[in-house]
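note to self: dont lose this again. the chain is below, predicted strucutre after it. 925 aa total, dont forget to put it in the shared folder this time
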Amino acid sequence: MSGLDMRYTEKELIQRWDHAFEADPAEKEKFYLTVAYPYPSGAMHVGHGRTYIVPDVLARFRRMTGKQVLFPMAFHVTGTPVIGISKRIANGDKKTVGLYRDLYRVPQDILDRFVDPMEIVRYFSEEYKRVMQRCGLSIDWRRRFITVDPQYSKFIEWQYKHLHEEEHVVRGAHPVKYCPQCENPVGDHDLLEGDKAEIIKFTLVMFRLGDALIPCATLRPETTYGVTNLWVNPGTTYVRAKVDGQEWIVSPEAAEKLSLQDHEVFVLGTVPGTDLIDKTVSHPLSGEVPILPACFVDPDMGSGIVMSVPAHAPFDYIALRDLQQQGKYTGIRPVSLISVDGYGEFPAQDAVERAGITDQNDPGMEALTQEVYSAEFSRGRLHEKYGGGSVREARDAVAATMLEEHGSVVMYEFDIRQVVCRCGGRVFVRILHDQWFLEYSDPAWKAEIHDQLADMSLVPAEVRAEFDRTVDWLKDWACTRRVGLGTKLPWDPAWIIEPLSDSTIYMAYYTIAHHLREIAPEKLTPEVFDYIFLGEGAPETVDAGTLERLRTEFLYWYPYEYRFSAKDLISNHLTFQLFHHKAIFPEELQPKGMVVFGMGLLNGAKMSSSKGNVFLLEDALEEFGADTVRMFLVGSAEPWQDFDWRNELVSSTRRQIERFWNTVQEARGAEGVSAIDPWLQSRLQQRIAAATTAFESFQTRQALQEAFFGIESDLKWYRRRLPEGTTGGAVLDDLCRVWVRLLAPFIPFTCEALWNDLGESGMISFAAWPEVDEALVNPEIELSEELLARTVEDIESIKKLIPMTPESISLFVAPAWKHDVFRTVAASTDKTQVVKEVMKDEQMRKRGKEATETAKQVTKLVLKFPPKLVEQLLSTTIDERAVLEGARTFLEKEFGVPVQIRSADESDHPKASGALPFKPAIVIE
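---
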């Protein structure tokens, strides 16, 4: 199989498959799977490839098992990303132009047109489709749409009409991620950096300095009682600003942030940090404290000035210790206010000294800080003089007191430093008024989603806890913005529905997307969608026959069986879509399951298009071929595990496919029979069963292991066991016809070509998935060959260890009484008591120490064996001596010396007594 041949085959099959996977309602059972649609703003990389190839492998498997499979695709283009890209290209941004010209290889004449955002959408949506077809994705392309299609916008308007009527969309003021450059709130999909950033609520503790206030941001207001000093950065120039009519001293960065958070801010002048050092400030809860210098203070975090609690904050303790070791501020002592089990009077000091931290730059400081904070929050209590009670309770109470009585205000910050919009501008937290929010904070709505999750199939099972956590902490979500591509809010068209909020129930739209394309948008009234999706009303803008056809098709496909998406979308899209489904659709149309993907790495580092750390999918297809890319991406990890693309490993996958191709070609028309054939037939049935089970559990990697590597391993042993001068019989031809079907979901181009070469009609994509033929299952012969293979492996291991040329090999098989011990041990549920259990038998007691030692050795053996092998040995009995006698000729050929098989109880050889069930004693002389 040359690369040239496969490139030709790929082109031919892409054309042949063009309409092959268009799925319409049928009499057979359906299987509807969807995967998150892509945002076509750049070229696909191999990480995208895994995202779409794994669902395709599963779609192809289900199709071969007789299901009517729907696997659709669309393109998500709403929001501001393409607008930001377009602006940067129009402005000649070198980094952006270089990315699209050099990495994505967009022709210059097309790149020149990217000043229009829709040109980016048109170009890359076509590129995505073309590359997806090159990957062999079995998609029904009739249902393709983009999220600014007018028909889709009518669908979104209908969705939001229902959400608004049910009071799930409310108007209010909330902190949101905001890009001043775009003048828009932004979602995770709009970000170049910081897509994981969360908004954190700080309390500003107001310290007085003369007529001015110095605010310090804290997440731990209860520790204000223990403040010994403030920290300022001597290298920072602060500003005096009038904030809501009161003079504050803050960093310039803080002044800018506060102006976005409902504060009227006027900068009056500047104050060098050095001018603040050694000044004294005061607060009712801590009294008068000095201001000290600290270079670690970040002017871009909080107010740019930090309050110091050295008794309970490791960074504060060690910074103060560093100064005191220089002979400065030696009169300052930590103030203990929290007691916590496992720590002394000053928990921060305890933790720092125990960890051997030498200075504040020690990399262990972050973890140590979290350790102390977590311990104090979970089990700490304030001393009685500070009010007593748990830290958990005191935190909110003290914060409320601060806000009501001591002039504190709330300030919002991100939990990470850099959050950058796709336009290139920095993102801040802003309080937006008159903004529309999806009220995900509604406890009743949350309770419904928790109940729904309990009934869903989630893969892997451990993500259930993450979904539940997300539902618990999810806050109201800003679902609209002023600019960008998208659907206008029906009742307030000055707003546009943002990208994550318009992509929650589009799985329902797929079911009829190809029909809706033929209907004028103005005819798609809310009443039309009410009838199609809910069976309500009698709309007049679309004829009754069409409406009935659309509703019938929707009900055939819905609900979807499984939704596939990346694990980083649990915190937004995957959970949002559950809320929206629950709000709009009846119980019988709720989603059934979700499969969560791991992330993609390139040579061990996270893939990132914006940072250039990607390997383009088309380059991979060109260099290695579609099936090689598919097989590597599926075989490198289970779907929920992270995978690592490495070119050198991909090359080995290509060679594996070539071996498979050559094996099938060589087996065509094979004739004759051999004594080992029944073993190969039986093993094949086991591989079919194991691959099928793995597929049904979404273990695509394990399915590939069984379907490819397992069968290849069986063939290797089969050839080894063939009589000299033979190459295999008709069983090989039968096996290859099964083997090609087992691998068809993984490497469909290769398997379609081989299916044709084998003289089969039709497409293998629609051939029947192999089923186990119970008549060919032969446990005795499988166990016999397993015994032989393990014995050969043991002989080979011994030969490597002994410095001699063997002249003979003797094999001693275990006597019957040792098999009785094996059965007792294998059936025992408590292996620690198994010796006592064995010695309850009178005949065993007569054997004394020999039986006791055998029980111990057999226990070790049982624990070492695979559980499935132990089960087989309990359910199937073989005559080990007869098996090895029958293979004497094979063994003598393998090792080139005479081989003798004897029962251990017939020999006085000292090593014979070491024979155990399924593990003969071996003597090489």
